[in-house]
Structures
1.
Amino acid sequence: MNKFENKVALISGGSRGVGYAIANRLVDAGAKVVISARGAKRLEDSAARLRQKGGKVVAVTGDIGKWEDAKRMVNAAIDEFGRLDILVNNAGVSMRGDFADLSGEVCSRVIATNLTGSVNLSRIAMEHLIEARGSLVFISSIAGLFGLPGASVYCASKMALTGLCESLRLELIPKGVHVGVVYLGFTEHDPEKRILSASGELILPDRPAHHSQDKAGKLVVDLITKRKRQVVMTPIGSLGWFAHRLSPLLVEKVVLWAKESQIGLFKSFR
Ligand SMILES: NC(=O)c1ccc[n+]([C@@H]2O[C@H](COP(=O)([O-])OP(=O)(O)OC[C@H]3O[C@@H](n4cnc5c(N)ncnc54)[C@H](OP(=O)(O)O)[C@@H]3O)[C@@H](O)[C@H]2O)c1
């Protein structure tokens, strides 16, 4: 029997990138999945690809930052499959630019997607996850572990997910629900992926890739299977996390030095 047979998962942002990779892995493991995103065409194409390999898949368009849209996504799992065992809060958007240059629209869009969207879906899904004694998962980033210049609101939204995750874990442990968080490293991205510039233009991501989308998908499914609390991806991520716990000042100095010298992931962080 497949590990996830009879399990139902909702993956926000499942139309491409890491979300699609997670959905793909869950389908392979026997789960029925609901994927959601705003763009209908890409979402339908991705659902069709998953169905082609035998997946039971429902696609729901909508914006997770809007309560009613988030409700439709959760309801789709219940209406189509009768239950919801796993929620992966994956959909997110990144930004680049010093805080002083950010437009109000960029600030609110990043928070509305990364934080409000995860709050909405988690809150709406709660009773179903409790009933299933299921899994609630947050997709965060190395930027959710310590601050990075040029990514302030993104960092803030991802760090806020840690607060949400830790609080919900304490509320849900007695109810048998697993709550986990994955701090992703820089992941390969689809050609369509865009992030927000300071003024709100959609621009290409400006950083290297340290691992594949499928590796991230595999890791998330492993976290769910083993009901792990958290995973920090990539050696740089783990080192940064450990160093930051030992000495935030040291990490600050290294980050500022790397930015000044324009090395590694700071090559184009401006
Ligand atoms: N890629 C990386 O290097 C990396 C590193 C660390 C963390 N992460 C995190 O991993 C997650 C996935 O990243 P990714 O690289 O796969 O991103 P991506 O390729 O840009 O995909 C984002 C997905 O979310 C959907 N989405 C965006 N805004 C949405 C909204 N308001 N409502 C509903 N769906 C929305 C997108 O579809 P539509 O645009 O059609 O809505 C798409 O399906 C994000 O939370 C990101 O912060 C990524």
Note: The first strand starts at residue 8 and ends at 12.
2.
Amino acid sequence: MPSTIDLHTHSTASDGLLAPGELVAAAAEAGVRVLALTDHDTTGGIEAAAAALRPGMTLVPGAEVSCQMRVADGRVISMHVLAYLFDPAEPAFARLRRRVRDSRVNRAQRMVERLVADGHPVSWERIRERAGGTVGRPHIADALVEAGLAADWDEAFGQAWIGHRGRYWVERYEPDVAEALRLIHGAGGVSVFAHPFGQRGPIVAEVDIETMAGLGLSGIEVGHPDHPPATQERLAGIAADLGLFVTGSSDFHGAREGNGRDALGAFGTDAEVLAAIVERATGDTLRTA
Ligand SMILES: [Zn+2]
Ligand SMILES: [Zn+2]
């Protein structure tokens, strides 16, 4: 039985495979009644999703915000915070979303520019042409291999080339989590720490979540395809200790064969929690058909 309240999904407005309207239709088919659209650092799909709602469905406008945090053991990690029901026109938070989006687009180009500046035989036009869509590091790695500069992807992603903090690595802009939370709340939004113990990327400690709670974090995404049952239990305990909302969602990015782990409504949120989020938010309202 899929959950009827799914508070974390993506459309083609960011890295999802379905257009906002298609996503809403897929949610309706899956039995999801309340859907949050939370594209990465953009609200670009919200209006199209709202227009596609079917009778009885509700859309929660939102976004998934990229940011970073220096965690208790000293590492700086990238993380995601879900923002719900903020005012999309509030200028400070809108500016932050735009800056993060711009940096994502410009980053690959800046890496190629640095390679060209050092006289390496690669060309942005050719890489972009071959990529067909948004250029990412894999496309640059292909070009390095094709030009005979790197023997294979492993070498291309090494320190001599475009590996993490390697010679031609370009940092992506991510605000500090304190700033992201301040701007979300400043725009009247409610914040939820997305997949805190996800499979990808480093793991934060409980004390780091406590720090975020001190900065006004409202909730933790506990139900998520990356969280096995034991992880969910642990996160639910942390949420209870800190007085945070517990949410659940599919983090759906696109239609997969069958009802896989990323199926819409695979994990859900309790109606009381949704009501509490709506109650706390002052920036925007739920959309209905
Ligand atoms: Zn995420
Ligand atoms: Zn996501």
Note: The chain has a mean pLDDT of 92.
